[in-house]
Known about the structure:
The chain is mostly beta strands and 155 residues long. 12% of the residues lie in helices and 47% in strands.
Amino acid sequence: MQIIKLIKKAQLSxxxxxxxxxxxxxxxxxxxxxxxxxxREILNIGDVVFxxxxxxxxxxxxxxxxxxxxxxxxxxxxxYEIVGGLVDKGETLIQAIKREIKEEIGVKTKKLxxxxxxxxxxxxxxxxxxxxxxxxxxxxxxxxxNKFENEEIKI
Length: 155
């Protein structure tokens, strides 16, 4: 592998997700390759949690639809997605996924099992995704409104 040194770090944006520019010096262990610099911009997202929510009472999985700027900008229809969101500062992963389930589909979590962890776009974001299987209460209201984040959600 290589020996990597961070030379410079500069914040490019302080928006909802901070955006950083990094400069690295890379020294290869292969002596035929001279040291070189690379520049990378990285979106600072952090940890996120998602859950495949299942109701044993109804024997079905719950998926949600909500406004996503990506679909609007690309003129695409909204797609169904699994429940999830950002891990807030000071929260554990378990606290975060239980909060997201309550906020987005309005029910309590009965059982949780971690399925996997992955980094979807390691080339330009520091996002780490933690995916769970969650058994939840039966949902009575198939439309919710999360007043804390102004999200209208269809289940």
